[in-house]
Amino acid sequence: MTASREDIARAVECLRAGGVVAFPTETVYGLGADALNPQAVSRIYAIKRRPPNHPLIVHLPAASYLEQWARDIPRAAHQLAEKFWPGPLTLILPRARTVPDNVTGGQDSVGLRVPGHPVALALLQQFGGAVAAPSANRFGHVSPTTAQHVRDELGDEVDMILDGGACQVGLESTIVSLLDARPLILRPGAISQMQLSEALSIPVALGGADEKRLRAPGLLARHYAPATPLRIVARENLEQQIRALLAQNKRVAVIAYTQRAEPAQAHYYFLSPDPVSYAHDLYATLRAADAAQHDVLLLEAVPEDEVWLAVRDRLTRAAQAHQ
Ligand code: TXA
Ligand code: MG
C-alpha cells in the first residue's frame, strides 16, 4: 500500500525531530535522516551496523540544491543532473564546507542524487532539505526493494517505514565520480556507460574496484550478499553441478533465466531473460531464497553484454562474499 499524504507529513515531522525514516526510491529503499543533523545521521550507522568511515548518499529535493552541498561544481555535473535527475544516478563531487563529517565518512567529497520516486520526492520537497540515506539493509547485505523487506530486516529499529510499493529499478543507482577531469563510473546501474558518455559527449570510463583512493562500501568485493552461499555457474555446467550437490544430500536452489527445471530435486527460481526485469526481481529472489533455507544457491551466469553489467557487478560481489 502506497504511503498517504498523512504518512508523508508524519515522516517529515519525524525527520525534523531527528528520526530515521525508511522510504522508497526508484532503485531500492533508503534509510533516511536529516543530513544536517549529525546525531540523526549517526543513528543510521548504528541501525545498519555500518562502519563510520563509509560515506552516505545525500538525497536532494531538486538539482537547484547542488550548490548548497557541493563546491567547484563542473559543467558535467549540471549536464548530468539536467539529463538524468530525478533518477537513478549519484554524482560524487567536492563537498560544500557545511556538509557534516559523518555524512561523508570524513572525506572531502559527497555523493548527491535526486531520486525519481513520487513518495521520495514528496518527502524531500515537503521536508525542504537534504536526506542522507544509504540502502535500508544491514551492512553488506542485499538491498531492500519492498517495504516488507525493510520491516523484515530492520523492524522496530527505524522510526517509520514509508511504503511505495516494489522499487521500479531494483538495483542501486549508478555512481559517477566527477572529482577529476575524467568522469569515472564507480558503481554501474540503470544509467549506462553509453548514456553517460552520450550526455557528456566524452567517453566515461568504468572505474570502481581499482579506485583505492575512494572509500566506497559499494565497491567492496563482499557486498550485496545473501546469507546462503551463492555460486555463479555457466549454463553448460549447471546440471552437472546440481547433480553433484544433490549427491552430497545438499538442499540445492537454482536461480536461472533459462527455463529448465532439471533435475527436479533442486528448487528453481526463474528470473526474466530481459536484464531490466531480471534486475527488478533479483534482490527479492535472493531474499526469498534465503528465507527458504537452502544449503547452496547456484546461479546461472548471465550474459557478458553491457546491458547486464550492473546485474553482473552485484552478482559477482554476492558470490565473492562466500569465497
Ligand atoms: O540507489 C541508491 O544509490 C540507494 C538509494 C537509497 O538512493 N542508496 C545506496 O546507498 O545504494 P548505499 O549507502 O548503500 O551506497 C552508497 C554508495 C556507497 O558505495 C558509498 O560508498 C558511495 O555511495 N558513496 C557515497 N558517498 C561517496 C563519496 N563521497 N565518495 C565515494 N563513494 C561514495
Ligand atoms: Mg547499500
What does this structure look like?
The chain is of the alpha/beta class and 323 residues long. It folds into 2 domains: 5-212, Alpha-Beta Complex (DHBP synthase); 230-320, Rossmann fold, CATH 3.40.50.11030. Helices cover 34% and strands 17% of the residues. The protein has helices at residues 5-16, 38-48, 66-69, 75-84, 101-104, 118-127, 147-154, 193-200, 235-247, 275-291, 309-320, and strands at 21-23, 30-34, 57-59, 89-94, 109-113, 131-132, 160-161, 174-177, 184-187, 205-206, 230-233, 252-256, 267-270, 296-300. The strands form 2 sheets. It has a 10-stranded mixed beta sheet with strand order 7-1-2-6-3-5-4-8-9-10, with helices on both faces. The chain is globular. The model is unreliable at 209-215 (pLDDT under 50). The structure holds threonylcarbamoyladenylate and magnesium ion. Magnesium ion binds at residues 134-135, 143.
Shape: globular
Total helical segments: 11
- The helix/strand series, from N terminus to C terminus, equals HEEHEHHEHEHEHEEEHEEHEEHEH
Radius of gyration: 20 Å
In the CATH hierarchy, the third-tier topology of the largest domain is known as DHBP synthase
Number of strands: 14
CATH first level of the largest domain: Alpha Beta
* Distinct bound molecules: threonylcarbamoyladenylate, magnesium ion
Number of domains: 2
Low-confidence stretches: 209-215
- For the record, the CATH architecture of the largest domain stands as Alpha-Beta Complex
What portion of the residues fall into strands of 2 or more residues? 15-25%
Q: Structural class of the secondary elements? A: alpha/beta
Sheet bearing the most strands, described? 10 strands, mixed
- Compute the average pLDDT: 94
Helix percentage: 25-40%
CATH H-tier superfamily of the largest domain? DHBP synthase
Q: Describe the strand arrangement of the main beta sheet, using strand numbers.
A: 7-1-2-6-3-5-4-8-9-10
